[in-house]
Design a protein that fits this description.
single chain; 8 helices; binds adenosine-5'-triphosphate; binds magnesium ion
Length: 245
């Protein structure tokens, strides 16, 4: 049964944030030289949010995304994901957490010799789903992203935009708590980028998928509900529906 949008939003409002960062810091060591990539980030992401993270090259966007995706651990500060404090988690607990996150990258990262359906199905087989069910679910997901007639194509037989749709279907396969996208339109032309953004927007509005998307493109960022600007490792503005928070 579909819960009406208004009621869903009310339920969501009472739930704890999916992501909460308090004075989050990440310092990389380049030999003996410390590189302060994040210098105290405070951020709360609620279920159902659609965030665009904007900022110049080297400002710390991917670093922040990698921490939120439990791909890396913070140097200092607190990061709660689904109310788990990532600093206290062991490696196997971190990989459990990672399984609940959907990742989409600039360069699609699809397996070249696999068809679209098998690329999507792979993450389901890792999650232990049987073959018939996997196929059914992969087909549904590819339909959701508008690739009904391209299921048997391999990545090289698909356009950049279509490959990114496969990557989005794959990211959604295990019903992630949120989608993390690092420059998802960075490698496709502007018209196709717009189509991808419309797809992402639809996933957020119609299916309630929580999305954090890094982009360089101010026009695309405006399609998000919330724009977070990051500069030199700190958040310099956070705007929701056109209003500063
Ligand atoms: N593994 C690493 N070792 C050392 N320094 C790193 C490492 N990864 C990133 N950095 C540095 O941390 C800073 C932030 O990098 P990050 O990749 O987060 O930037 P970004 O905002 O994603 O940039 P871009 O828009 O170019 O992708 C940069 O100064 C970068 O050089
Ligand atoms: Mg980056």
């Amino acid at each position: 049964m579909e819960i009406p949008k208004q009621i869903r939003n009310k339920i969501v409002a009472f739930m704890a944030p999916i992501v909460e960062a308090v004075n989050l810091k990440k310092t990389y060591m380049l030999g003996k030289i410390p590189v302060e990539a994040l210098r105290g980030v405070n951020l709360k992401v609620e279920s159902g949010d659609f965030l665009a993270v904007l900022g110049p090259s080297g400002s710390g966007k991917s670093t922040l995304l990698n921490l939120i995706g439990a791909l890396d651990k913070p140097t200092a500060g607190t990061l709660l994901i689904d109310s788990f404090d990532v600093s206290t988690l062991k490696d196997n607990q971190l990989s459990d957490l990672r399984r609940r996150v959907g990742f989409v990258f600039q360069f699609f990262n699809l397996i070249p010799r696999f068809t679209a359906i098998d690329n999507v199905g792979l993450s389901l087989s890792i999650a232990g789903m049987g073959k018939a069910e996997r196929k059914k679910r992969a087909k549904e997901l590819l339909e959701t992203v508008g690739l009904k007639d391209r299921m048997k194509h391999k990545p090289a037989e698909l356009s950049g935009g279509q490959q990114q749709r496969v990557a989005i279907a794959r990211a959604l396969a295990n019903n992630p708590r949120f989608l993390l996208m690092d420059e998802p339109t960075g490698n496709i032309d502007s018209k196709t980028a717009r189509e991808i953004i419309n797809l992402v927007k639809g996933l957020n509005e119609e299916k309630g998928v929580t999305i954090i998307m890094v982009t360089h493109d101010q026009h695309l960022a405006r399609e998000a509900k919330r724009i977070v600007q990051i500069f030199d490792g700190v958040i310099t503005s956070d705007i929701v529906n056109g209003e500063p928070t």
